[in-house]
């Protein structure tokens, strides 16, 4: 009996200390940044105004409970880009992927990540001399076609590694290149722009938002090669990786081989909230500089084949030129 009484007393005390989530400045900012910056709230799975009331009325006793509640509110939006990242998670992301700078959002209240990163090349026979440079892999076939595998556009050093791989392959006698993006979940827009800059230059994309004029994005850096290029894609290519493949296709720089990509090109910007937390918000969708967005339709290949046969088909297409 004494134990039951003590437990009841502790529960009552905890309930008395809990306050509505809406009384926490962090909740208000986390709600407001979505309200002001999300690209199209009409596509949300929930009514965002109603969410403020429903989630804001829930009681939380500490910062951890608040973080869990905001995460649930963001998850209810129903896209796979927008995320609330607690201060602890943000620190873990920096440890895992390097510094991810964010935009200050402190307001008047009182985005690329995907987690599923694959590191190994698909099962199709890869070049026999496959090796790693940083987060990418490279090799070459006996017919003189070089191969660069880019598993994601998240990890620090990806663009620099692609550039180094391309230079090494061309110096080694490559006559054409295959850029393998199959399974690439996307990542940072700046990495997309830097990798594109290895192969081409100029303004390639625009971001369509509801809160600003279309924002143009250029390829970054000086092209490292003008060798013929094929890009391998499949239905598991998302986000910035789709933007990379689509831009190289639209520019006429690469032939795209494989299957239509996911059609999931929401552009994510990270916003700094309070106490180290971040809000990763889908603020717009990527589109080519001139043309409709890839959102909902994906990048269609020039050579449509089973992705498992894409490297073989790409080599044939390159060597037949």
Short précis:
By secondary structure, the chain is α/β, with parallel strands linked by helices. The protein contains nine helices and 15 strands. The strands form three sheets. A seven-stranded mixed β-sheet has the order 5-6-7-8-11-12-15, with helices on both faces. Strands 3, 4, 9, 10, 13 and 14 form a six-stranded mixed β-sheet that branches. The protein has a two-stranded antiparallel ribbon with strand order 1-2.
Molecular structure report:
With 321 residues, the protein is an alpha/beta fold. It folds into 2 domains: 19-104, 2-Layer Sandwich (Transcription Regulator spoIIAA), CATH 3.30.750; 131-263 and 298-319, 2-enoyl-CoA Hydratase, Chain A, domain 1. The chain has 9 helices and 15 strands. The protein has helices spanning 2-17, 25-37, 48-56, 63-75, 87-97, 158-171, 189-199, 239-250, 310-319; strands at 19-20, 59-60, 83-85, 103-104, 131-133, 136-140, 145-149, 176-180, 203-208, 215-218, 229-233, 255-258, 266-272, 278-288, 303-304. The strands form 3 sheets. Strands 5-6-7-8-11-12-15 form a 7-stranded mixed sheet, sandwiched between helices.
Percent of residues in helices comes to: 25-40%
The shape, in one word, is: elongated
Task: Summarize the helix and strand pattern as letters.
Answer: HEHHEHEHEEEEHEHEEEHEEEEH
What Rg do the Cα atoms give? 23 Å
